[in-house]
Write a structure and sequence with these properties.
mainly beta, 7-stranded antiparallel sheet, 3 helices, 5% helix, 30% strand, globular
Length: 312
């Protein structure tokens, strides 16, 4: 039986290429996802809820923004004493992260900032992060005053029906391997710039869930050169809650599917250097807690457990 002839020899360059394993390109991560943070609330070591938040930077100072009812909510008897957020620590491997603990009280006084207007309390809270306590290799993006909407600038008008995004962690759901949020499509459902029913918020039409409280509501800009950096988005508001009608017949009528988002320009007031910390919302034991990162670095979080406390 004739032997099978050997295959023809490959040219030297082709042989070298065949022997070299293919290099997988580094995936491109949308910077918008790095601006959001998953927020967990704790009372001591007891996990209470999950929510959403995002980073805001002004004049070198870095803040975490979320909903006020995430840090305190008297009607539901929700009184956490600290928050914890997940931070990326390796730009080449987003599976590496660490938890960062943020105490809400110091010497018995609350340290977050909140605001009020003629209609009452604004459902937005802002906590300044201590940069010296953050990981040296922190990977994040932050909105700035340049991302806020200037109603006098008509180059990117926010019109009724404008396409928006809500970036958050609905029901605590997210990419548990890479610690990234998910994005829900929304549209502007009320006249942007007007206070809906006299309140400091506007409406969005989107499918949202508990756990989305504190998420940024954004709109892509048409001229990316109008905003410095790699976040070509306008920060319109802070998602607060789903809106419903008390007279709705739950058997006959579907939910409205509308949500309220507080205008983001409140962040300029809350982040102003002269703004004092919020008044004491409730007396807490004096604590020596400071902001700190976990001593260990995690490579992946456990999947969300449906038996855990309900996200906010």
């Amino acid at each position: 039986m004739d032997a099978t002839p050997p295959p023809p020899a490959l040219p030297r360059a082709a042989a070298a290429a065949a022997a070299t394993p293919a290099i997988r390109p580094t995936p491109v991560i949308e910077p918008l996802l790095l601006a959001a943070a998953r927020v967990s609330t704790f009372d001591g070591e007891r996990l209470l809820t999950h929510a959403s938040g995002f980073f805001f930077e002004r004049e070198g100072r870095l803040f975490l923004v979320t909903s006020r009812h995430v840090v305190i909510d008297t009607p539901s008897k929700h009184f956490p004493d600290r928050l914890q957020i997940e931070l990326h620590t390796d730009a080449q491997n987003l599976a590496q992260s660490t938890g960062f603990s943020i105490p809400l009280y110091r010497d018995g006084r609350s340290i977050w900032r909140q605001g009020t207007d003629d209609a009452g309390e604004i459902d937005v809270a802002l906590v300044e992060l201590e940069r010296q306590a953050l990981p040296a290799t922190l990977v994040y993006r932050a909105f700035t005053p340049a991302h806020l909407v200037d109603l006098a600038d008509r180059s990117d008008p926010v019109q009724v029906g404008s396409s928006l995004l809500i970036v958050g962690f609905p029901l605590g759901f997210h990419d548990t391997l890479h610690h990234l949020p998910v994005v829900r499509q929304a549209i502007s459902a009320s006249s942007y710039g007007l206070r809906f029913q006299g309140e400091g918020y506007f409406l969005t039409d989107a499918r949202t869930h508990r756990g989305t409280s504190g998420a940024p509501v954004v709109m892509r800009v048409s001229d990316v050169s109008s905003i410095p950096g790699d976040l070509p988005w306008r920060l319109l508001g802070v998602h607060s809650a789903r809106l419903d009608v008390g007279s709705r017949d739950e058997r006959e009528d579907e939910a409205l599917g509308l949500n309220c988002a507080w205008y983001a320009d409140i962040l300029m007031t809350l982040s102003a250097p002269a703004t004092p910390a919020s008044p004491v919302a409730s007396e807490r034991p004096r604590s020596t807690r400071r902001q700190s990162a976990d001593a260990r670095t995690r490579t992946a979080a456990a999947p969300a457990d449906p038996a855990k406390p309900s996200p906010r």
